[in-house]
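cron nightly-structures :: item 1 of 1
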Amino acid sequence: MLPPASALLEWYDRHRRALPWREALRDPYRIWLSEVMLQQTTVAAVTPRWRRFLERFPTVQALAAAPWPEVAEEWAGLGYYARARNLHACAQAVAARGGFPDTVEGLRALPGIGAYTAAAVGAIAFDRPVVPLDGNVERVTSRVEAVQEPLPGARPRLAALAQGWMAQAAAVARPADFVQALFDLGATICTPRKPACGICPWQGGCAGQRAGIAESLPRKVAKRARPVKAGIHFLLVDAQNRILLRRRPPSGLLGGMLGLPGTPWREAAWSIPEALEHAPALLPWQALPGEARHGFTHFELRMTLLAAAAPPGLNAEGEWLTAEAAALALPGAMQRLMVLAEPVLSQGLAERPAPVASRRRRAPLLGDAE
């Protein structure tokens, strides 16, 4: 039984979430920016960053004209820095053509815009009758239609089913509202655990609820364990308590971002003598206690930190920033290292540190991550 779009739209009119990117209806720049930021990030985390990003880059033209380091700095902490590089490239393409295309096909042709983002911007900004398949829509669709085939294999079927619902919404000229209603239903009612089926506007037509399997859907293929990679990084602090940072190469993970100098990341553990070949200066380095962990999509990263005081007149390649400035500029993985650095930055190194070793020759520059 086809769930009635009218019931969902009536519910949405009463209970829609107050999201800032909905305040400026039909602004493709703000909608596109929100969709890119919301990938792998929560609404609560995105909302203040979305506002701040717009204060700095209020239009797509302003974003296109901004130097990449400024964009990277503003993106720090939002993760997945390839998204920021694609965002910048897309803004430049949009500015060059004089604005956003208003079709899904046109949006899909822009650099860095995939099928989901093209559908989301096309539907919400331009009322195109297409349903973007995000996690919320996957969950709602699998439950309403009682699809027990596991993800990711079930995605084509779920997309087709969700698209089939759109005909009703398009008939009343509300494709944008219907898509956002699906998002809100999944986020607030049809939640991953303990869905509120009793107050769902589609409970009467939900096959999963009738069969008593709604909460177990969608089914998912068990994920393989992610490999673990290791790295050792270096905290070099000068007399003004500033930290030496280096900008990473433009390609690769965290490309173009500032970071603490260190080794490449690899699955084999690093020995201290090996790691010191990547140190930014020939100094006695002190191992700090603890381990910083950060999860990337395809691997788990574990990092340790060596610290040293920079002697006067040291000529080390990089940028010297205060801890406060570094906190704003560093990506999430590097901010986890900064937690290990807090005792040194607040109290200084031990008066008589026990150095782990020092190199006898000048080290090469920081290698890029794999």
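cron nightly-structures :: done
Residues 231 and 270 are 7 Å apart (CA to CA).
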